[in-house]
Every structure is written in C-alpha cells, then in structure tokens.
Specification:
Elements (H helix, E strand, L loop, with lengths): L2 E5 L6 H12 L4 E5 L6 H4 L2 E3 L5 H10 L2 E6 L5 H6 L1 H21 L4 E7 L23 H20 L3 E6 L1 E3 L12 H11 L2 E4 L6 E6 H13 L11 E2 L3 E4 H11 L4 E4 L4 H6 L8 H7 L7 H16 L4
Parallel strand pairs: 1-2, 1-4, 2-3, 4-5, 5-6, 6-10, 7-9, 8-12
Antiparallel strand pairs: 9-11
Helix pairs in contact: 1-8, 3-5, 5-6, 7-9, 7-12, 9-12
Bound molecules: (3R)-3-hydroxy-L-norvaline.
(3R)-3-hydroxy-L-norvaline (VAH) binds next to strand 7.
C-alpha cells in the first residue's frame, strides 16, 4: 500500500492526526515526520526526523517510501509568528511550496494543508464570516495562511494537484501542550485550573473566538480527504466551525467542575491578534459539499478536557 507522510507530526494537530490515520490505514503506512524527537520514541514509530524546509530530505522520503499522500502541518502559529515573522514565512510558506512542487513532480494523489481563521483580518465581517470574503490579516501567520491558500488554489488549477485545506478555528486538545497560539488560552486554562486552581488569561473576558475540540477537527480532516474529488468546490480553504465562546464563558464552564477555580484577565499582545479575528464563522459550504458536521459543544469539551488532563497530570481530586 502506498504510504502517507505527515510533516509536523508531533505538533498539536499531528500528535492526534497520526494515531487516527494509523488506526484507519495501518501504522506502517503512516510515516510521521518532524524536526523534533518524539517522546516516547517507540510510540511514534515509524518516524523520520527532518526539517520541513529541506527539499532534498522531503523528496527522498517521498521517493524512498513510495508516498502518494502528504499532510503538511508544519507551521509557526500566530503569537510565535509575530515574535519571528521571517521564520514564520520560511516555515509556513517556503515548506508548503516545496511540498506542492514535489507533489506535482512525483504525481502525488493528494495533499492536505491547514489554513486558519487567522486568514481573516479586521476588515472581514466578524460574525458568521462567509466562505468567500475579504482576507486582509494583520499577522504574519495570517499572511502566510492567505498566501498558502492562494498557492494551493494555483497548484490545483495550473497542475491539477488535488490539494485540500481547512480553515481551522482555535483547536482544543489535552494531548499536546499549548504551543504559541493566541487561542491557546483555551488550553492553558485547563492546565492551570487543575494544577494551580487559578488562571491568568491573556485576553479580555469578553473576547469571543471560534473554537473546536480536537476530535472534531481530526474527523473533519479525514472526512475532507476521503470525499470524492467532485465534491470539493473550494480550492483555497474551507471554513470549518463548531463552537464560539468568550474567555469568561469558558472560565464559567471550568468552574462548574472546579468550584474553587478563579480566573483573572491580563490582556497582552495577543489581544490585538484575537481582536483581528472573527467571532464566528459560516461553514455551510463544507457541510453542503462533503457532509461536515461537528459533535462537541463547550460543555462536552470541558468535561473531557478536565477528565483526561486529571489523568495526564496525575491529579486525583
Ligand atoms: C493560533 N491556534 O492561535 C492557532 C490558530 C485560529 C488560531 O490558527 O495561532
């Protein structure tokens, strides 16, 4: 069976997408690729350590393993990208173009690449943001996402490459720790609530952002990639939505499980990023074209996060 490469396999999405793909298609057919060693390594076999911007390395992995599908997840997120915009451009866009060029050269069957609601900016309608709208992001991360979407669409129209993409909202999971995203307050709050009984939130209490529990994002990604090609009408990136809530609403949901929990709010530079993004997104085209639907609401997501993080952190109470 032809193999699949997951590049950026040990990040927030990859650390859950790899196991899901392996369960579906067989462990030996899904090769995890990342620049960092996994811990524990044996759990992530088969894997390769490689820089996503090293064209020669990526090409030899594709040829040597007879790869026909690539999930290219390697990316610097919004807050980290603002601290190092050059690195964000190099990793997020240069590595994507490498993958797209190699996919055309080696006639790969499919490519997946994650965009984000960060592709929208302050001039985009903020409520129920439409699929086709103004894309004027004010972060380098957002600029890389708009550029990447246009590259994907170009490679599809020019070379017929079947590259598919989703504009993920903020993703919430308990397996990978928070990693440089603006929406990561919605992950960090759970760790601190359980370990410290309190959380200092870096956005205002009234900050509303589109969010999604990771299991929905993984389900949607695989559903998109398995959809018949004729169902795919959007070749930039599909809006994908589930839940929208404010920081205060999430804190109140956590408090239902941990009554002594307190949350304070000290907005930092990430507030400006959050204020440039939508509060909710219209994903009706994904639901119509290839049958997307979400499962997890805020209450279900909070219950799972508290339960699973208690286990992960060894907290009995
Ligand atoms: C970030 N988690 O905060 C990412 C995401 C919608 C935001 O792309 O940068």
């Amino acid at each position: 069976m032809a193999k699949t490469l997951v590049i950026g396999a040990f990040g927030q999405i990859g650390s859950e997408l790899v196991p899901a793909l392996r369960a579906k298609y067989g462990r030996e057919n899904i090769i995890a690729v990342d620049i960092r060693e996994p811990h524990p390594p044996e759990e992530m076999e088969p894997y390769e350590i490689c820089d996503a911007t090293d064209k020669g390395e990526i090409e030899s992995l594709i040829v040597h393993n007879q790869v026909d599908t690539v999930y290219h997840l390697a990316s610097l997120l919004s807050a980290s990208g603002e601290k190092n915009p050059d690195n964000a451009w190099r990793l997020n866009v240069k590595s994507l173009k490498i993958v797209l060029d190699l996919a055309v050269k080696h006639k790969l069957k499919k490519v997946f690449w994650p965009s984000s609601i960060a592709a929208f900016g302050p001039t985009t309608p903020r409520v129920n943001t439409p699929q086709h709208t103004i894309l004027e992001p004010t972060t380098m991360y957002g600029v890389t996402k708009v550029s990447g979407e246009l590259l994907c669409q170009y490679y599809h129209h020019k070379y017929g490459l079947d590259v598919r993409s989703l504009r993920y909202p903020g993703l919430i999971s308990y397996k990978a720790p928070p990693g440089g995203g603006t929406t990561d307050y919605a992950v960090g709050i759970f760790y601190d609530a359980l370990q410290k009984g309190k959380y200092e939130c870096f956005v205002r209490p009234d900050t509303i952002l589109p969010m999604m529990y990771m299991d929905d994002a993984i389900e949607g990604t695989i559903k998109l990639m398995e959809a018949p090609v004729e169902k795919i009408a959007v070749r930039t990136s599909y809006n994908l939505a589930a839940i929208s809530f404010s920081a205060a609403e999430l804190a109140a949901e956590v408090k239902k499980h941990l009554p002594k929990f307190t949350c304070t709010y000290v907005p930092d530079a990430r507030q400006k990023i959050a204020d440039s993004w939508p509060q909710s997104v219209d994903d009706s085209q994904a639901r119509k074209d290839w049958g997307w639907k979400h499962t997890y609401g805020v209450a279900e997501m909070t219950t799972i996060m508290i339960k699973e993080l208690k286990k992960k952190l060894g907290i009995r109470k």
